[in-house]
Batch of 3 targets.
Target 1
Amino acid sequence: MTWMALAVMAVILCASLWKCHQATDSERHVRYVGMMNLAAEKIAKTIQGMEMNAMNEFDEVEKHLDTPESVIAALESKTSLNPEVRGYFAAFEPNFFPQEGQWFEPYVVHVDTSAFEVRMVGSARHNYHKSDWYIRAKKSNESFWSDPYYYYDGTDISGHYTTFVKPVYDSNGKLACVCGADMTFEWLSKELDRIDKEISDDDLLNQYKKSNEDFYTVVINDDGSCIAHPEGKKVTLTSEEVVSNLSKKKSGIIDVTVNGIPSTVYYGPIKHVDWFVAIVVER
């Protein structure tokens, strides 16, 4: 009877420990989903603020379509209000201003933290009329964020960018130009650092964290490629299931090996853009 009782007690203890383990895993799962949603919300809020600032700039251009000089003055008027924007441009339809010819694209660009200058970047070499963002703006009649890209022209403005784009129309409802706000991904990297620090300092979110468990936040594009990440921790998600979920703007979880470390990745969409936030949990 004694051995029987001990066996029963052992079974009960193992079952209790298993249930406790499952409950802890469930709590950790809820924790990381919550972290993912929180990060997505914070990034979306920052992006929305950038959109509003850019829209103010574009509205100024729309009000000043009388002359090339008035357009440039409108672009300059609010440039200093958003330090995260590398430059604002207005890319006009061919011969909108006959004296400016086929390519008229004034670009107001920051040359340091406080100063900016006007450059004319439209040309046969930079035929923006054939650019994906210009064609998409003409077809959609809506504002949007471009896919991330690398721009190179041999000058100091070369780099990795995304652009918030909006078509602008004249008083007759005819397309005048496509306006854009160019942003490098420095602001997003800083935002991820800030979010990770806030989460790490939150006792409630860290209640069920394992002692040997670490995490970090990245942003991925809708094709699974990595847009922004901590130094040395680039994450690319290529499985068919993940890519399918990304195309449908669906959240998900996947176990992968990242830089040689077994990890669980929680990912979900960010509002206003075709990007996803991902919490990478190293196990």
Target 2
Amino acid sequence: MFISIIAFSCGDDNGQWSMVNVQCEYRSPVDYDIVLAGNFGEPRPWHFHGGIDVKTDNQEGKKIYSIADGYVSRLTVNKYGFGNAIYVNHPDGMTSVYCHLKKFVPAYEDMIARTGWRDTLDVTFPEGKFPVHGGDQIAISGNTGRSTGPHLHLELHDTETWVMYDPMEKLARFIADTVAPQAHSFMAIPQGGEGVFNGGTSKQTFGFGQPDTKKHSTTWTISREFTAWGRVGFALWADDYCEATYNHYGIRHTRLLLDGREVFRSDVSGIPVSCQSEVNQWGDYQHWRRNHVWYMKSYREAGMRLPILHTDFNQGIVTFDEERPYHLTYILRDYQGNQSEYHFTVMGRRDPRVTPRRRPQLLNPYQLYDCCLWPLHSRKSHTY
């Protein structure tokens, strides 16, 4: 996989600026077929999973390779967290991080002074000291730090901002996956004092009833009809899968359509570290505490900064203010393009307990906007 970016030099003696085309070829961090134990962006309490977990057959000692050209910029050793970890800066502005290692190759191991298993060490290197090529061995796999079993945890960050990106964007061609994500159930969340769903004012969950099968694509429709009035938000419990393992993963792409129009979209890559804790706002954290199941909201709560969430003018909240059928569709897709669709119908039925607020009038035809651009609270309009 070749990635190209445009970088600017500082100029020549005549003050002329020039452009340099930087390319990186990415390759696998291991010398066998990659099977994932976990993917990027999975919701966890107070944080997102910041990388991919590559299985090592539940063994230590597998060779770990740099995924692209660059230089070793940092080594860290800790009893907790990443354990033994190595950082490689790449010329396209990205940094790859390899974690839970047993040890580094001798050239790097010799640069740290271990004293015992409780060591906390952090060593950085200048650009020219340890250059590496993609495919060079840099370590062997282990089970150090906060690890529940031998594996390689691999992260990819923007070197300058440390924003977290999905390593699948560089490594997807090395990972077999022909199975679509599956939704298990949705949650209806009437907004306090402003909405009713199926006659109730509290949140409710409803299963899709889809058979648990691994398919490349699927379309599923709930035959049951629901009723609603006023403002209602929705949330979804879903998992991604692949054919090679029993593990389940987080969802990369989610869309919610109302009568064919997109009201919510999430694309889980490019997460600022400062937004980590907002996973508890995007997901229903209280429900997770009781049931250990994440329902991820298809709307944006007030004050959320997560730039991976995109909504319509109403922040993704659906307003039922006409006595007619409303057709809702969830579309789930993984990075490999496997896709599933889930359809259900909600009948608008007037309820005297709720008076729907007046809908805001748009002065131009755009339907979506990016609500937050980290680190500033800002809104950017787009025409779709």
Target 3
Amino acid sequence: MGLVLLSFGTTNAQLLNKLKKAKDQTSQAAEVLEKGSEVAKGGKKKKGTASAGLKLDWTMFKQTPAVTFNSLLYGTGSSPGLINSYTATFIPNKTVDGRTVNAFSDQSEYLRIKVFKDGQYMNYFEYSGDQVFDDGKKTKFNEPSSRYQRDGEWVGHSESFITDWGPGNYRLDFYAGDKMFYSFDFELVKLTNNDPYATMNEMYVVRGPWNNFAYMNYADTGNLVFGYYITHEEFKPNPANSAKTNKSVKWSVKLFKDNKLFAQHYGNGPNTAQVEQAKWNEVQCAFKRVDKPGEIKFADLMDGAYKVELTIEGEAKPRIYKFDVKDKRIVQIPEQDRTKNTDPTRLIEGWNDFFWLKLEK
């Protein structure tokens, strides 16, 4: 009986060895085929390129997708190096086969941003599409609530920053499923403090559209609201206290119609903004009439040529923005007008309540 058991055990072991050897040979063959395929295609898949993406039903909306301009300036400028909190418009939430996209199980293939520095691909980030509003026409690019794997490694909040890649000219390519639908450019700058006694020796700032654009906003109240962006890049704005990094800046706004003063900001003198160090602050104001008491409503804009004159303390000359009103509506700049913009991936999206103004050079 012992000999029978020994014989069975030996036979079984030999069989297992043969199976293992065959499996190893199959695995080696598969590896050779994979390497051969890579060589034929020109090398291995680049690190961080992510999956191909979902096939979305892009016929859901008539309009081309974009990212709202104010969310781009906020999401990229409120914390230099962090790219987050963007609002995308007209992103389908169904696949071509009619399945509703699941923001969690489909996360790796749904919303992504690929980052390029000085024209070179760096890596990508995934985003959660669980926040949808305005009848499904707006979708937030929010940071995922949990970590995810990229190239076999776990990615969390700290990896959402691009400062590790250093200063340079950056481009964000926004993806929904397998389609790149929008691009945004800005510069990341590293400033160095030469003071050996300073508590902070370096800081990052972003530059780009913040310097060159302002807006008129059709507020929910019906008021006409003007908004612009401001920052400061001083390491020690308060010489007496290095802990105070905010800076008080005086500013005033005048609105002209057909070269005549029409309205100005509220107050009897310049207003004051608390400007944060290396962060782009959004400053807003309503207008009061100069010919009689009362605020300026959006409906008060009669047809004509308008000019905004923004004076900011410390700036050599006022910022000037011009726009026209036709049929009691602000005429959009060509970059915002969907009937005139020739590149949907660069559309300045203002929805129907932000009218963007370009700085007069």
